[in-house]
Amino acid sequence: MRATIIHGTRDIRVEDRPDPVLHTPDDAIVRVTASCVCGSDLWPYRGVRSTEKPRPIGHEFVGVVEAAGDAVTAVKVGDLVVAPWAVSCGKCPQCRNGVQVACDHRAAWGGTDEHGFHVDGGQGELVRVPMADGTLVPVPGVIQPDESLLKSLLTLSDVMGTGHHAAVAAHVGPGRSVVVVGDGAVGLCGVLAAKRLGAERIIAMSRHEDRAEIARKFGATDVVAERGEAAAEKVRELLDGVLADSVLECVGTAESMDQALRCTRPGGSLGFVGVPAGGAELPIGVLFSKNISVGGGAASTRAYLPELLDDVLAGRIEPGLVFDAVLPLEEAPEAYAAMDERRAIKVMLRPETAN
Fold first, then answer.
1. Distance separating alpha carbons of residues 201 and 90, to the nearest angstrom
2. What tens digit of pLDDT does each residue of 145-192 get?
3. CA neighbours within 13 Å on the CB side: how many for 240?
4. CA distances from 116 to 48, 106, 111, 113, 258 (A)
5. pTM for the complete prediction?
6. Half-sphere exposure of 187 toward its Cβ, with a 13 Å CA cutoff?
7. How far apart are CA 300 and CA 86, in angstroms?
8. Residues 6+ apart with CB under 8 A from 163
9. Looking at the DSSP assignment, which residues form a beta bridge with residue 347?
């Protein structure tokens, strides 16, 4: 099969790899219909996180079950499934508490499982899925989705669930004012999540008109281009002299965290989901003096997937609008470059065998 391999800084290649096989009765093999590049994939691509040796990459995909072990009961051969970004067993205390990202038996896409068996990355033609019952979510009644539906289903593997996690952590609800810091796919999905949860005022931070346009489609009432203290003052102006009830931090840098805290009112709530890229530590003095509650972290998108899937299938939300480019899997290096250079918000990759 063909799969995307990261070799080092800005060195992405699509190479031949062995087809996966079932190793345990809990395994399934999924033929990938579509995968994508995540903003967090850009950290090793840029060299912010080192790549010690070549490895498969990618943790978001939708596909069709091609084979399943004898112990797999939740999905069957022929099912269209969504794979969350984190593998989980569904049975341990963490999974039962809805924190599948901390599963006691977690395996890593592009790494290994607890038995030491290789696990494929999501940006390839085939993937062995460990603990398939706890990980995969079947899409009822859908076998061959059109491209728009496929895009929305693919967001449920990560970015839509992550944006939703930020909104939940920030206590977004009816009547609340919300600021979203970050206009990447996660931030835009955070806007959509805030709208879905009933926020009254949603302020998206963006300097890019294409991204701002999607934010407005998703429910943003205002778009602010300012940064730092100027952004906080603009929020205060828009909200009649007060800062936001809820703020979603969807980037992961020191600058984005600083801006998020500046925009949060005293007694407000901050939900952070940006993968930390260094220097984003929380200033305890600011939290103490402003009485800001903080939640978030790595999103257990598996926990949110059923309710978000229902809304996608019913046409109530269309998070797939964050995909503004579709490329063949063989052009994965261009997909990374386009996102790195901000020529694309999010790129969907289609294996030739899925077209």
1. 36
2. 999 999 999 999 999 999 999 999 999 999 999 999 999 999 999 999
3. 2
4. 27, 12, 9, 5, 40
5. 0.95
6. 29
7. 7
8. 186, 187, 188, 189, 190, 191, 192, 193, 248, 250, 273, 319
9. 325
What distance in Å separates the CA atoms of residue 73 and residue 122, rounded to the nearest whole number?
A: 22
Q: Which residue has the tokens 């006691």?
A: 104
The string of pLDDT tens digits covering residues 305-338 is 999 999 999 999 999 999 999 999 999 999 999 9
Q: Name the CA dihedral angle for 82, 88, 89, 94, rounded to a multiple of 10 degrees.
A: -130
What pLDDT score does 117 carry? 97
Instruction: Give CA separation, 236 vs 214, 285, 317, in Å.
Output: 23, 22, 29
Q: What does the alpha-carbon distance between residue 135 and residue 208 come to, in Å, rounded to a whole number?
A: 35
Torsional class of 57: left (φ above 0), alpha (ψ -120 to 50), beta (otherwise): beta
Closest CA to 82 of 102, 103, 59: 59
| Residues 251 and 187 sit within 8 Å (Cβ to Cβ) | yes
Q: Strands 325-328 and 347-350: what pairing?
A: parallel
Dist. CA 218–CA 315, nearest whole Å: 13
According to DSSP, the residues that pair with 205 across neighbouring strands are 181, 224
